[in-house]
Amino acid sequence: MVHNNNNRFRFFFHYSSLAKLTFWSFVFLALILVFFFKSPSSSSSSSSRVMTSSRPSMTSSLASDLYRRSLKTSSWGGPTWEKRVKSSARIRTRNGFCVLVTGASGFVGTHVSVALKRRGDGVLGLDNFNDYYEPSLKRARQALLERSGVYVVEGDINDVALLKKLFELVSFSHVMHLAAQAGVRYAMQNPSSYIHSNIAGFVSLLEICKNANPQPAIVWASSSSVYGLNTKVPFSEKDRTDQPASLYAATKKAGEEIAHTYNHIYGLSLTGLRFFTVYGPWGRPDMAYFFFTKDILKGKPIPIFEGANHGTVARDFTYIDDIVKGCLGALDTAEKSTGSGGKKRGPAQLRVFNLGNTSPVPVSDLVSILERLLKVKAKRMVMKLPRNGDVQFTHANISLAKREFGYKPTTDLQTGLKKFVRWYVSYYGSSKKSDQ
Ligand SMILES: O=C(O)[C@H]1O[C@H](OP(=O)(O)OP(=O)(O)OC[C@H]2O[C@@H](n3ccc(=O)[nH]c3=O)[C@H](O)[C@@H]2O)[C@H](O)[C@@H](O)[C@H]1O
Prior knowledge:
Blueprint: H1 2-38, E1 49-51, H2 58-67, E2 74-76, H3 79-89, E3 98-102, H4 107-118, E4 122-127, H5 135-147, E5 151-154, H6 160-169, E6 174-177, H7 191-211, E7 217-223, H8 247-266, E8 270-275, E9 278-279, H9 288-298, E10 301-306, E11 314-315, E12 318-319, H10 320-332, E13 350-355, E14 361-362, H11 363-374, E15 379-384, H12 399-405, H13 413-428
Parallel strand pairs: 1-2, 3-4, 3-6, 4-5, 6-7, 7-8, 8-13, 9-12, 10-15
Antiparallel strand pairs: 11-14
Helix pairs in contact: 4-5, 4-10, 6-7, 7-8, 9-11, 11-13
The chain binds the ligand O=C(O)[C@H]1O[C@H](OP(=O)(O)OP(=O)(O)OC[C@H]2O[C@@H](n3ccc(=O)[nH]c3=O)[C@H](O)[C@@H]2O)[C@H](O)[C@@H](O)[C@H]1O.
Keywords: Isomerase, Membrane, NAD, Transmembrane, Transmembrane helix
Subcellular location: Golgi apparatus, Golgi stack membrane
GO molecular function: UDP-glucuronate 4-epimerase activity
């Protein structure tokens, strides 16, 4: 009897704890569901995101909301999406690469993606379509990429869940990392966006790459601005880069040091490219040559900077097609990463190259060329070079890139701007009426 009672007691006790456990499991599950549906989704720079297959982390979502301005709703995940991702990344030539291009709907990203796709590489784009400059231009570039067979995933490089998913779906041999917060002067208005994209975003991408198996080789966009207050010209990769003149420059310099760390610890193959004031069709509206064109056509005055004692301000303007050749050359000569799954197995390649034009042109000459091409006289407003990040002069020594992968720019500013103006007029239609 006692035995029986004990059994009943045990059974009852067991039954009641099971019921309690089930009850609390339901409560817990319900709480998770409430949290999921009530929380602001997205860890991309999009303000909201419809998730269909996996969730991004809350922390990155909050971070992106803090650092980015409003963006459109976007979605990722699901069987159709996965199919598009895989199809875009499929290699269509022998010994072709499989490349993830971040910032694919950006200026350089679009041109590089099209060039890679054209030669048969598998290319998958990633872009957060933020509104630093007109998102409609990024959408137009995206349409161009679609026509070339490149699918651009909408998402941010800080979105760990998304990056993980992409690396699960595709075994990337290379990453062309071009996503960044650009612009030297805007850094004074929105410093956090530089930290978010150029530092946190870069680290987030490197973390995924280091854990990938195989690890991809990474080529990424540094900047001529790392030379900062360096006065020795032309700028050589051996020159000092410890005096950045803007937060933008400082974040790019930080990127170079971060690259060193990931190369050293995890065996990631990393190549940084120091771009020198890249211009051309489909360019960035925040850059001087672009908004000078717009304002000259509108009859608006354009601010032309000059140094102390009327010193010339000049840039080593580099045409986009030359930059694309440099990017492909860097990808083609990038050695494999040596680690896998987060472990280093041996030393890996670590490089940095100047990609410039080697012939600086004064900004006032840039304006004269535009006047001739547009057949409109500019309203010049000469003013002192502001102390907000600008440097007076840039000039690239490109012998290292020449030696390593035959980099040889062939487009002078006059020729390049002619192509830009032709594109500008065709894109904006009757440009004098354009409100862009
Ligand atoms: O090589 C880089 O690493 C950087 O290149 C580019 O920076 P910058 O070389 O400063 O280009 P950009 O703003 O077009 O000014 C061009 C010239 O016009 C002068 N300038 C500018 C504005 C103005 O109102 N007046 C003027 O005279 C100005 O003083 C300068 O001399 C990219 O934007 C940057 O993201 C980064 O990639």
